[in-house]
């Protein structure tokens, strides 16, 4: 059997700024620069100060990308590299030049740049002023987005505003912002920590919507590009057929995907009803008035700005879960984050699922759930255009470094499943992006998890890159437009 993809299908690979660029002293600080330098935050005590030093390996990296034969390359702009203090008052021309050159070199090699504006590395100067909770936060993002559209838009046809709002609004604000070690009194800290992800998510959604309208009104006619947003997407199977677990699995999907997707992609806009109802009920139970729900409201104007503000949905897809409801004890326990207690669900992994990337990793291979989430999106949001913006896995720690057979198998399994979703289920998928081009700084896992198609020797002062087996495998897939 052959798995050929539709004509014009986009084949891509990806990185993000903080994970690969290095050159931290040639830009303003981001929250990740600060967070990684606090002891105990990153598993191996490492940071992205140098990472793959992609900032100084531009030509070489473009050649590595070209050697794979991809039609697209997804990377992110480091906000604090182009705007060191986060605001438009101070533009770092060298940073602008770097991204322009990167785009130019890609285009010379027939590779379309796909730019993510925000992949978690928020400017620290803005964070100090209150970050996403500051009343000017939306304006700051819009100024930054407009600058990027203006400086790079003649070369870029595909934009992604945010990478995984769920992840940065939820995990990001409680880890990088260091809420866990604030010394305010515990009860008010808890209340605050509980509401912040919803408030941050709200600000990000508005920032996305307003940036989309800026592109639409000021740039689209001339540049003819498309603007989308990337979702965290993990499928949830109910852990049993009990009504409580079925409900919990639906809430898991709702709290992660629909929280962000519904305001943008649904016909009515605004937050999903089940989320609104649940959080309102909680407010009443806790004797707060309905209007004090921790889920903010959009005004009519805001709702209209956000609704329909994406030309495609980006999807980062790695794994799925078996999801169950919480016991009464768990609901009151501080072990579980607030978001899960609000939504009343807990994610577990089926022990029979194929472990991948080693015993300790969070990855497992469940490709058959990819069509499920794509069909869920198709049914719920009227079959929007979807771009798989990330899929891939880390090397197995016991594998010979350059023989990344596990990566090839994982990606092959997912491509076959994706093919089914497109050809049998009629899902409107535009392309596939393999994460990642290079081994790189894997957030709190430091350099212990290696997602690259190219091995990077982090002990070599030149950070030598060497292709793993997956490079030629992926090149073949692209050449054949499938398997
Ligand atoms: C993130 C990447 C990350 C990958 C693997 C994704 O959710 O966007 O930055 O490296 O997961 O953990």
TrEMBL record:
Its EC number is 3.2.1.21, 3.2.1.46. Keywords: Glycosidase, Hydrolase. PROSITE patterns: GLYCOSYL_HYDROL_F1_2. InterPro entries: GH, GH_1_N_CS, Glyco_hydro_1. It catalyses: beta-D-galactosyl-(1<->1)-sphing-4-enine + H2O = sphing-4-enine + D-galactose; Hydrolysis of terminal, non-reducing beta-D-glucosyl residues with release of beta-D-glucose; a beta-D-xylosyl-(1<->1')-N-acylsphing-4-enine + cholesterol = cholesteryl 3-beta-D-xyloside + an N-acylsphing-4-enine; beta-D-glucosyl-(1<->1)-sphing-4-enine + H2O = sphing-4-enine + D-glucose. It comes from the Eukaryota. One of its GO terms (molecular function) is galactosylceramidase activity. One of its GO terms (biological process) is carbohydrate catabolic process. Belongs to the glycosyl hydrolase 1 family. Klotho subfamily. This is Cytosolic beta-glucosidase. It comes from Steinernema hermaphroditum.
